[in-house]
């Protein structure tokens, strides 16, 4: 049980930097603030 929990935590920590990098890339590509907001909403939705 303890090892399983540790693995889930490692996966979450591993995924976060990738999402931040992806989000940063989207900000650089977004021509408008509304697009940036839509990308942020899509990213939040994909989290849950």
Automatic annotation (TrEMBL):
Record's protein name: Uncharacterized protein
């Amino acid at each position: 049980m303890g090892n399983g929990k540790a693995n889930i935590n490692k996966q979450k920590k591993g995924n976060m930097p990738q999402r931040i990098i992806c989000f940063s890339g989207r900000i650089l590509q977004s021509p408008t603030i509304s697009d940036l907001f839509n990308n942020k909403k899509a990213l939040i939705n994909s989290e849950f």
